[in-house]
């Protein structure tokens, strides 16, 4: 029998889970007559933008969304031809490469729109533009009182052939708080902005819904939805019921050494944990440099040899120590720090709760220089046999 490969610090990305989640989300959107733009910004929330983009486009996504122009261009360089929207710029960003690569661009101000139009003229092609209205999040997006000017500028630029306005869009502040009054307030402002654009002669689609709104507000699906976190199998509204999502990321390592300690012996820096009775310990070569938060020292559990076991003593830069009681574990044995939770292992959502943050931050921050990332695509591999 082949030995399992021993991982030092590895992110296993379950491609089939991503496909499943996209099918769930795009299926729900389709019931409302909406298309699906899958958000793959920040390297696909840490899962690998290309892997996610390809899996998403195979399983129901119509378009991709990213924050930065570089992220959009990398998708194009990887051969992805589906529509890609990019929505956040650094001051002075050059739009020409994006227009040349047929990347759709968001505009939140007349100045931004004019710079996109100028880039389109330079490149010699029409830029596809999504006008963003600020409906209450107050980050980017055009303030309501500037919207008429932005719409007029867009009508002119469209008449000149520099841009084509393909969408009016916005982003929700509290979609994950089901029933929050701001959701309807934002939706009403959104509708007003859309009607103003139509009255001016534009014919855009609308997109507003992030994952939470896809799952809880079908009335806000409009012509397109824009899920991110749920694509990765992490539920932004677990209080709303089970949406059948499958977490795609597993963070795993393996035992590199075992030893037995006697009562009274302590473990790791600061000797914060002392054995009350003799115990077997397993050394695992991951630490805070690999994304295991040191602040979880004394509160972390891992899945090892069929059960959850506590990590004892401080999390170090490169190592943690797992308490195995009297169980004998093998060197090379897999250690799961978090995963989908199917076997009883900790999940990214549990880490987030312990850390006082959201699972978005946990998964997005995991891919680091010393951490490998392995996309595992079981059904396709099986078909290939
Ligand atoms: C503009 C925009 N749309 C959609 C999303 C996807 O949101 P979520 O990951 O909550 O589905 C994001 C992510 O933050 C976003 O910034």
TrEMBL record:
Modified residues (N6-(pyridoxal phosphate)lysine): 41
UniProt lineage: Bacteria, Bacillati, Actinomycetota, Actinomycetes, Pseudonocardiales
Matches recorded under Pfam families: Ala_racemase_C, Ala_racemase_N
Enzyme class: isomerase
Alphabetized SUPFAM superfamilies for the sequence: Alanine racemase C-terminal domain-like, PLP-binding barrel
Pathway membership: Amino-acid biosynthesis; D-alanine biosynthesis; D-alanine from L-alanine: step 1/1
EC annotation from Swiss-Prot or TrEMBL: 5.1.1.1
Organism of derivation: Saccharopolyspora rosea
One Gene Ontology MF term: alanine racemase activity
Cofactor requirement: pyridoxal 5'-phosphate
Name of protein: Alanine racemase
Enzymatic reactions: L-alanine = D-alanine
Sequence similarity: Belongs to the alanine racemase family.
Active site residues of this protein: 41, 269
